[in-house]
Each structure stands twice: as structure tokens, then as C-alpha cells.
Design a protein that fits this description.
8 strands, disordered N terminus, 8-stranded mixed sheet, 10 helices, alpha/beta
Length: 325
């Protein structure tokens, strides 16, 4: 009789945890339950090298599977030692304006292949060339490495003669945090702001005090409290003296006056929902034009997926950008 193959205990524990988390609430749709089960296996919250390697490889595979291929071409470049990529439509498009895209991944994951998913969708929805870049990741390169890299790419666009008013800065999740921090850094230097910000499920409050951290804990199929805590700890760095509410980490608490018009999109089922709601409120109170869109039954950075709400959200991005331009 053939011996039954044993499943390693570590993997078995993850699978059991995934099943338990997926069944915690009847409010999750079947799709969200499936997403939660898969994501809990690949994103354990660990920042150990072997776990990060697996998470980063999974993101690259995801990018290859869901990136739109039609009507898009890519050109790799290096910008001041930062790997970057132009994503453009094959057919006629707007060559006067650029979307500078900051990818997500908790500041611990994300490469150009992963970024290509939303970079392609941004190119298709806005009609603009999109420049994405591979900023250094934590814990190997903690704060302020990512911001320094973003500024290098921003300076490259300015050097190429693309004015600040011709650049829309977009970002999702941690990339939304980076997009905001880039705008704040440019402001601190006394330079012109980008034309607009487009933020998808932005991570704006590293204190983790928003109401949705509790209310949406069982509903969120993508993120957990432990995962967010591990990412923020890795990003801040072991020797940092910064508090979580420092505006360098949590742009929600920054002086937002003077920032450009901003579109914020978030799903109802996100742990980070409060980060978006509170940001929109803070911007409005500080006289920044902010549009908040909350999509029902949607999860963290749902815009990546081939679903109707994602298509609606990207169409809204296109309308917002064309209105601002």
C-alpha cells in the first residue's frame, strides 16, 4: 500500500488558519472568502527573509496573471540607480501628461512586474504615459529609503522637462502613503505640487487607531492587524525614534494645506477604510479638494482585479484626471 504523503506541520497550520479565517463571518461573499484563504497563506505577516521571498515571488506571479496585455507596451529604464518602467498605450494617447505611479506592498514587497497591473490600468483609463518605479524595500532598506527613491524619480521627470503641473501622482496602499509623502516632501522643498493625486486604499495612519481596524477585522479578505503591524515595524526600522503619528510615517497628521486635488478610493470591507475616510475629512478641513469614493463589498486595492467594481473605479479615475487636466 502506498504511504500517505504528509503535509508539513507549518503548512498545515497555515491552511487551517486560512480556512478558519475564511469562515469567521457569513458576511463575506464567496469570492472574498477565497481571496482571504489564499492571501492568508502567502502573506503571513512575517518579515523573515524566506517568508518575504515567498511573498515577493507571489506578487510577481499575480502581476503576470492579471496584467492587461492588449494595447500596452513597456519600456524599462534606470533612473538615478532606481529601476523603473514606462507603461504606454500602443495607440494614440496623451503625451503631454504623465502618471507617476507608486506601487503598494506594505513597503516590504512589490516589484515592477507587480506594479504593472495598475500601471497598465492607469494608462488605459487616463490615456497618459505611466512611469512606475521599484523603490527599495524594508526591512532591508527602511524609512526614508522609499521616499528618497521617489524624489529621485520626481527629479528625473523635472529634468526631462515635464513640469510638475503635468504630472499626476498615483499610489495604492503603501504606495498611497508614498504618493502623499512625496507631495509633502516636494512641498517642504518649496517646489510646485503635482497636478493631482490618485490614491487607492491609501495607508495614511500608522497608529492603527481608525475605527475600521476593529469593525472590518473579520470582513477584510486581504489584510490583518498582525500583517499591518509587521509592515509598519519593518518600514520604520529597528533603530528609529519616530512615533507612529509622525507625519513622515502617517501623512494623515501632516499639514495638508496646498496639496493638489485628490481622488481617494476605498472598499467597504477594508481594515484601512478609516485611513481613507479620515484623510478625505482632513483634506477638506484644510481646504484641499478631495473626492472620496467608497465601493460596496470591495476589499483592499480591489482595482487590481477583473471585476465590475474595479472597472467602474478605473473609469472614475479617468474622468477625474481628465476633469483636473
Amino acid at each position: 500500500m502506498q504511504e500517505k504523503k504528509r503535509i508539513p506541520l507549518k503548512r498545515l497550520h497555515r491552511l487551517r488558519t486560512a480556512r478558519k479565517q475564511a469562515a469567521e463571518t457569513d458576511d463575506l461573499t464567496p469570492m472574498m472568502k477565497a481571496i482571504k484563504a489564499v492571501h492568508s497563506v502567502t502573506s503571513t505577516g512575517s518579515t523573515q527573509p524566506e517568508d518575504l521571498e515567498r511573498q515577493r515571488a507571489a506578487q510577481e506571479l499575480f502581476g503576470r496573471l492579471v496584467t492587461p496585455n492588449l494595447l500596452i507596451n513597456t519600456t524599462p529604464i534606470t533612473v538615478n540607480n532606481v529601476s523603473a518602467e514606462w507603461v504606454r498605450m500602443n495607440q494614440g494617447h496623451d503625451r503631454r501628461h504623465v502618471v507617476l505611479y507608486c506601487h503598494g506592498g506594505g513597503y516590504t514587497c512589490g516589484q515592477l512586474g507587480y506594479a504593472r497591473v495598475l500601471a497598465s490600468k492607469l494608462a488605459l483609463s487616463t490615456g497618459c504615459d505611466v512611469l512606475s518605479f521599484e523603490y527599495r524595500l524594508a526591512p532591508e532598506a527602511p524609512y526614508p529609503s522609499a521616499i528618497d527613491d521617489a524624489l529621485r524619480v520626481w527629479d528625473y521627470l523635472m529634468y526631462m522637462g515635464i513640469g510638475a503641473r503635468d504630472v499626476i501622482v498615483a499610489g495604492d496602499s503603501a504606495g498611497g502613503n508614498l504618493a502623499l509623502e512625496l507631495a509633502l516632501a516636494v512641498k517642504a522643498q518649496g517646489r510646485s505640487q503635482p497636478r493631482a493625486l490618485v490614491l487607492m486604499s491609501p495607508w495614511t495612519d500608522m497608529t492603527m487607531q481608525g475605527a475600521s481596524y476593529q469593525k472590518c477585522a473579520a470582513l477584510d479578505p486581504m489584510l490583518t492587524h498582525d500583517y499591518i503591524d509587521s509592515c509598519r515595524t519593518a518600514y520604520r526600522g529597528a533603530n528609529s525614534t519616530l512615533e507612529w503619528e509622525d507625519p513622515s510615517l502617517s501623512p494623515l497628521f501632516a499639514d495638508l494645506r496646498g496639496l493638489p486635488p485628490t481622488l481617494i478610493q476605498v472598499g467597504t470591507n477594508e481594515i484601512l477604510k478609516s485611513d481613507s475616510i479620515n484623510l478625505a475629512k482632513a483634506m477638506t478641513e484644510q481646504e484641499v479638494y478631495a473626492v472620496l469614493e467608497v465601493y460596496p463589498e470591495c476589499w483592499h486595492v480591489f482595482q487590481q482585479m477583473p471585476i465590475p467594481h474595479a472597472a467602474q473605479a478605473m473609469e472614475s479615475v479617468g474622468r477625474f484626471v481628465q476633469k483636473i487636466l
